Amino acid sequence: MSDRTIPTDGIGMHLYTMRESLAEDYPGTLRRLGEIGYRTVGVSGRFGHTAEEIRSFADDAGLRIVLEHVGYSRLTDDWQGALADVRTLGGEWVVVPSLPIELRTPDGFREAAAAFNVAGKAAREAGLKLLFHNHGHDFDEVDGQVLFDILLEEVEPDLLGFELDLYWVVNGGKDPIDYFQDHPGRFPALHVKDMAADGSFEDVGVGRLDFPAMFARADQGGVEQWLVEHDAPTDPWASARTSYRSLAEMRY
């Protein structure tokens, strides 16, 4: 372990964590996140606001939007509109957060890979990059084939990257370090979510995941953004503060 720290402008919040606060006061929530120290956010849910409005809220809060989660169905339902919105937000990445349950088979993942090749080309032409966000079930093995690996193998690296959710990789029985080493440069964004002793979600730095060991390989993985996420925080603001402090002070 060295004395490296995460760059200040690389510490962000994936806004799903703050959904209750966003529903009440979107601009105020972003301002408070900026005051804690966050510099970037990933958008997940608009809560009735337009892309233009959310961009202005972020600008006023001194935050940079780096990505937005866009449902898989948008690949065939106004994908150009989805790309235009991410550009309006100022993002770099358009992220598909999950696959429909009916596609969670080897054939389904191959179908998704073919769709991602097409959508990834359109994203590239728009000056963006398509990413996929994983859950634990994406690492299921079927007939000796890890489903997630189908996407890595069947979509060109310049057309699909990954927003790697570290909690869900471990939940799925895999090690993020292996992916950083075996598929360098494919993981520009992380969801940094910790795991409690009982396997539930935990604030960053409070759980049992060895983030310093993972982050020591982050350069190899191509990581540019460390986005905090907690799916079910008891107190979202306490969680946001604890997680920010853990990342800001972490050495790896």
UniProtKB/TrEMBL annotation:
One of its GO terms (molecular function) is isomerase activity. InterPro entries: IolE/XylAMocC-like (IPR050312), Xyl_isomerase-like_sf (IPR036237), Xyl_isomerase-like_TIM-brl (IPR013022). The keyword Signal does not apply. Keywords: Isomerase. The keyword Lyase does not apply. Residues 33-235 form the Xylose isomerase-like TIM barrel domain. This is Sugar phosphate isomerase/epimerase. The lineage of its organism: Bacteria, Bacillati, Actinomycetota, Actinomycetes, Propionibacteriales.
